[in-house]
TrEMBL record:
One of its GO terms (molecular function) is GTP binding. This is Mitochondrial GTPase 1. It comes from the Eukaryota. Plays a role in the regulation of the mitochondrial ribosome assembly and of translational activity. Displays mitochondrial GTPase activity. The lineage of its organism: Eukaryota, Metazoa, Chordata, Craniata, Vertebrata. It is found in: Mitochondrion inner membrane.
Amino acid sequence: MRLASRALCGAAGAAWRDSFPLGGRDVARWFPGHMAKGLRKMQSSLKLVDCIIEVHDARIPLSGRNPLFQETLGLKPHVLVLNKMDLADLKEQQKIIQHLEGKGLKNVVFTNCVRDENIKQVIPMVRGLVESSYRYHRGEVCERPLMFLLDTPGVLAPRIASVEMGLKLALCGTVLDHLVGEETLADYLLYTLNRHQLFGYVQHYGLDGACDDIASVLKQVAVRLGKTQKVKVLTGTGDVNVLQPNYAAAARDFLRTFRSGLLGPVMLDRDVLRGAPLADP
């Protein structure tokens, strides 16, 4: 189903949408059934560890974090690793840290695991936190090896707080695209890029200009990538062959290009940092 056209293509100075239509979407179904099992396993494993390393996407440092950690940590040391810092716009990094400190998160590390950037800070931080905690001097603690890592799969919170938070999670690849809808997700990405004045997609795809109409953008992307097919259209004078853009394929490429960093770094939580509450479902 095509998304409604807004006919707002044109120069980068155009009046972009100031909100994204969120109503009518069932966020509850974005929580896959297998995650419930993983969440239970994670909860049962908490009693076995002395320090928790929470890994979250640096593009959404504030939204989408699992409240399970805040509820069950107790006195356990806790390190928040914000990975993929190379894909995040961190001009307001200090504000992010202050916001997290206000939530009780004192140990935050920004990393890029692909290039090992800042990764070496994690183990010394964990060791220092464990050694200063009351659990470190238990009779069974062994130093060979010094540290065991108990890895768990990433899981969402059972209830995503809002539709917009769900869209942010999906843009970062946490929620499967087909659960949200690839064209809907591409539209939210376009809305976000334009609102943030990030027009790298225009140059990347060689478009005529920045645009706020996802149908128009996807049509141009499909044509540029050769993702079209000939279809017969019945007219008053007979059948006519026309090229039909593959909107779904164009949406997938748009999302893939964003996730690989080719459209530039972005901070999806800029609205939260500036005090705007996430929209309710």
